[in-house]
């Protein structure tokens, strides 16, 4: 099966992420999208991170009932911080018959030279890249296997924006699925 891996902190997951996943399923040959929740991005501070199991549960709530979407906790058991190439090697060994590709926003795509073994990743995996505002420039990476640029609809929201709103006591209704909002509010996350 052809699987798109959507790596992220998902701190928390929001409609921007979900819209991309749906766009991928409807407009590419990928058959499933797996959200890989990263406990710790190597390039981001850990300070504002909600516990990884809570973030995973929020993803599960967000995708409940969607057969083509899955939430993965595999990086929880791998060494931290989470290097994408290590996770890819692990997944390929665990699911030898699946063909994996990597989905990312242009912010992550611009940052690729800072990633561990980025050349290996680019040479061996197809990437599905969509443009995010203020990250319009797409660098050219010679030797890359296959880079699909998507014109996906983008919502001008981010997890940072959502955390900020919660801190300021502003509603996050409609920015995240309702089940996610209720779970965040019930537990007082990010406040
Ligand atoms: N509104 C959005 N539309 C499309 N993609 C998004 C959106 N927000 C984040 N992404 C992408 O989702 C992936 C995971 O992102 P991440 O979990 O860091 O979300 P984020 O909203 O960018 O988080 P933060 O604001 O905490 O940095 C990244 O590839 C990022 O480019
Ligand atoms: O492998 C790396 O060197 C690397 C460097 C930066 C980010 N990543 C991964 O990219 C994903 C997106 O990160 P984030 O925090 O922007 O959602 C997340 O899974 C990170 O672990 C991976």
From TrEMBL:
Coiled-coil intervals, chain numbering: none
Catalytic reaction(s) noted: nicotinate beta-D-ribonucleotide + ATP + H(+) = deamido-NAD(+) + diphosphate
Keyword Nucleotidyltransferase: yes
Keywords: ATP-binding, NAD, Nucleotide-binding, Nucleotidyltransferase, Pyridine nucleotide biosynthesis, Transferase
This protein's pathway: Cofactor biosynthesis; NAD(+) biosynthesis; deamido-NAD(+) from nicotinate D-ribonucleotide: step 1/1
Keyword Isomerase recorded: no
Pfam families: CTP_transf_like (PF01467)
EC numbers for this chain: 2.7.7.18
Known function: Catalyzes the reversible adenylation of nicotinate mononucleotide (NaMN) to nicotinic acid adenine dinucleotide (NaAD).
Protein name in UniProt: Probable nicotinate-nucleotide adenylyltransferase
Organism the protein comes from: Puia dinghuensis
């Amino acid at each position: 099966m052809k699987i798109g891996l959507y790596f992220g902190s998902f701190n928390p997951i929001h409609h921007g992420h979900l819209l991309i996943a749906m766009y991928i399923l409807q407009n590419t040959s990928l058959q499933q999208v797996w959200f890989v929740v990263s406990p710790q991005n190597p390039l981001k501070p850990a300070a504002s991170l909600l516990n990884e199991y809570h973030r995973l549960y929020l993803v599960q709530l967000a995708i409940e009932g969607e057969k083509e979407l899955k939430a993965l906790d595999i990086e929880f058991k791998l060494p931290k911080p989470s290097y994408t190439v290590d996770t890819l090697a692990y997944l390929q060994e665990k699911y030898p018959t699946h063909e994996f590709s990597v989905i990312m926003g242009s912010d992550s795509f611009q940052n690729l030279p800072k990633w561990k073994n980025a050349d290996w990743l680019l040479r061996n995996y197809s990437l599905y890249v969509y443009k995010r505002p203020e990250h319009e420039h797409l660098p050219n990476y010679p030797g890359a296997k296959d880079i699909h640029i998507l014109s996906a609809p983008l919502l001008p929201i981010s997890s940072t924006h959502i955390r900020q709103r919660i801190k300021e006591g502003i509603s996050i209704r409609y920015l995240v699925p309702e089940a996610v909002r209720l779970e965040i509010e019930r537990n007082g996350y990010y406040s």
